[in-house]
Automatic annotation (TrEMBL):
Superkingdom of origin organism: Bacteria
UniProt-listed Pfam families: Gtf3_N
Residues of the Glucosyltransferase 3-like N-terminal domain: 5-152
Name of the molecule in the record: Galactofuranosyltransferase
InterPro entries: Gtf3_N
Amino acid sequence: MTNYVLTSDIYKGYKHAGPKAKADINMFLKQAGWKILDLDLPIKRFPKLMYRIFKLPHLFKGKNAENIVFQYPMYTVFLTKSIIKEVRRQTNAKLIFVVHDYESIRKYKGDQTFFKNEVKIFNAVDCLIVHSEAMKKKLRAAGVARKMVVLGVFDYYNP
């Protein structure tokens, strides 16, 4: 059985620290023998729908996955939910989210619809890996019932 990391970087080519955390996780897990699935997710609505219809159904086909780490957020709720459905439909893998940002308290603060969707997303996976005890407490208070592991570090790789 194989372990996979799902990652997507909407900031490819930009010269800033935005993608550093995801790149660090990829580096560490790749060194541990995990396979990286770098998803080139579209941003616009119609291409997202086409991705959902034509690419996602084949993403896990024939892959004997034991664990799948999903680097959250991927900045598209529609495709995040679709990826969860495909993982559940096509594999028996444990789905683990590494939560880099809790969007409900950052980008979508005060948006109750987004907040409820995000809690549903988190409760649809097997385990969450979070940065801090404070993040874990906020997620618990929001209604996230899944197992959570506190990573306890923020800057993963600093040579």
